[in-house]
Design a protein that fits this description.
alpha+beta; 7-stranded mixed beta sheet; globular; binds adenosine-5'-diphosphate; binds 5-O-phosphono-D-xylulose; EC 2.7.1.17; kinase
């Protein structure tokens, strides 16, 4: 029997690295590996890039195919600021996407150029998550570290560079920096934040190798490494996503997105106008508080995470880490509408509702990027990420969206998308076409439930008051 052509896809996300060894022809998963990350939350949200490398090495080895893989690619958590010194060593731990200390710098960037300018020129109005705001924070807060920095990378760029020795990024992940445009890095933004463009990597086009594995790494030297991309862009590839199909990802972050033919330009900042990993766009809204926040509320209540109960009038906004959508970076969690007969199970359900609400509220805006006809309300939402495994999450999304929900049988869609990118290097196909050939989005469809407009109304009203109560100033 002929040996399969095997590729490895890696998802280096906030909480862990996951690696899949995949048969490039059929998409069958032949081996899996996983290794956890530590996030230091004492001051902001930081991780040591060296532990991502160790986790990658461990997870790739655990697939059992490291020495036989014919190509590899990495999908990584977006936006993180990796700063390297002249010797290529981290100057300090990476500032992660969910570190809101850079909120004042994001506000300054919006004040300086104006929200409409950002939407038109860059495609996104920057919030604290954007790498440009993080670099501005570093310049203002740790100028010595900024001065010592000889290279600025995103998490997946850094890992690809450690594998290959090549300074590289891709358009998808680069579009979350705040300084990328389709025509190159934006000089006015870089000048304003004091970042020398020479510190940035070149953008490798889709479908080409970023480089080849160096000796001493987890792979056979010379193995081709595809460009990789941001984790949401990788999941879009992994689903073989076509324009107009909505995706809701429930992980450390909550994200809602689709692929679009038109470039998004939302001056409200709710919808980020990311590029996808090919030649299209990825309008996306993101929350900071998703599975971890709901799990934390379940722990506080002493309940299993599935142990929800219907009814009641409680509203719980689980903004334990501040929030990005709505833009309340300094918010904390808020409980409203308690009554004598409110049960713990209802409180837990309220946490799910509060976490899902803003994602679903942004869905129409995400889909509207390609015009009103693109938003077919009967089209199922593809539900992915760790939370998609949970019945309580599935039912919450059905109840608050009024749409059917499709559960792709394939798991780990970020790693699968990276694997599809690696396979595309071997076959010359487009990575999304590879994933469609693999049938990765196939899975059961749960029918729509009647939309719970009363719950939506309660949450909307609470948020509108919460904005005034919690403010967005740095207290
Ligand atoms: N059966 C489940 N029900 C609800 N949540 C789950 C379930 N299984 C895993 N999770 C959640 O999934 C999260 C991890 O999802 P994942 O998409 O891997 O996150 P990330 O990519 O951000 O690291 C964990 O926070 C965990 O709470
Ligand atoms: O910031 C965003 C999207 O803009 C996040 O979606 C990050 O990309 C983190 O992803 P996970 O670790 O939650 O998968």
């Amino acid at each position: 029997m002929a040996h399969p052509q095997v590729v490895i896809g890696v998802d280096s996300s906030t909480q862990s690295t996951k690696a899949l060894a995949v048969d490039a022809e059929t998409g069958q998963v032949l081996g899996e590996g996983r290794a956890p990350h530590r996030v230091d939350s004492r001051h902001g949200q930081e991780s040591d890039p060296d532990q991502w490398w160790d986790a990658l090495t461990t997870a790739v080895a655990a697939t059992g195919w490291a020495d036989r893989a014919q190509a590899l690619a990495i999908g990584g958590q977006q936006h993180g600021l990796v700063t390297l010194d002249a010797a290529g060593r981290p100057v300090r731990p990476a500032l992660l996407w969910n570190d809101v200390r850079s909120a004042p710098q994001a506000a300054d960037l919006v004040r300086k150029f104006g929200a409409q300018w950002w939407a038109t020129e860059i495609g996104s109005v920057p919030g604290a998550s954007f790498t440009a705001a993080k670099w501005a924070w570093l310049r203002a807060t740790e100028p010595d570290n900024a001065d010592r920095t000889a290279a600025v990378r995103l998490p997946h760029d850094h890992l690809t560079e450690r594998l290959t020795g090549t300074a590289t990024t891709d358009r998808g992940d680069a579009s979350g920096t705040g300084w990328w445009t389709p025509d190159g890095y934006h000089t006015a933004v870089l000048d304003h934040i004091g970042l020398d463009p020479a510190l940035l990597p070149a953008v490798t086009p889709a479908g080409t190798a970023a480089g080849h594995a160096l000796p001493g790494g987890p792979l056979r030297p010379g193995t081709p490494i595809a460009t990789g991309t941001g984790d949401n862009m990788a999941a879009a590839l992994g689903l073989g996503l076509t324009p107009g199909t909505p995706v809701l990802s429930l992980g450390t972050s909550g994200t809602v997105y689709t692929v679009a033919r038109n470039r998004p330009a939302d001056p409200t900042g709710t919808v980020a106008g990311f590029a996808d990993a090919l030649d299209g766009w990825l309008p996306l809204a993101c929350t900071l508080n998703c599975t971890l926040a709901v799990d934390r509320i379940a722990t506080l209540l002493g309940r299993d995470r599935q142990d929800v109960e219907p009814g009641g009038t409680a509203v719980l906004l689980p903004y334990l880490d501040g929030e990005r959508t709505p833009a309340l970076p300094h918010a904390s969690g808020l409980l409203h509408g308690l009554r004598h007969d409110t049960t713990p199970g209802q409180l837990l359900q309220a946490a799910y509702d509060g976490a899902a609400y803003s994602l679903l509220a942004a869905l129409d805006d995400v889909l509207a990027v390609d015009g009103p006809d693109a938003a077919d309300p009967d089209r199922p939402i593809l539900l992915i990420g760790g939370g998609a495994q949970g019945r309580a999450w599935q039912d919450t999304v059905r109840r608050l969206s009024g749409r059917p929900v499709q559960l792709p049988a394939a798991r780990e869609l970020v790693a699968l998308g990276a694997a599809a990118q690696a396979a595309a290097l071997l076959t010359g196909e487009s990575a999304d076409a590879v994933a469609r050939r693999w049938g990765t989005a196939d899975g059961p469809v749960l029918p729509a439930l009647t939309r719970d407009d009363a719950a939506l109304e309660r949450i909307a009203t609470t948020i509108s008051h919460a904005a005034a109560l919690q403010g967005d100033g740095a207290h």
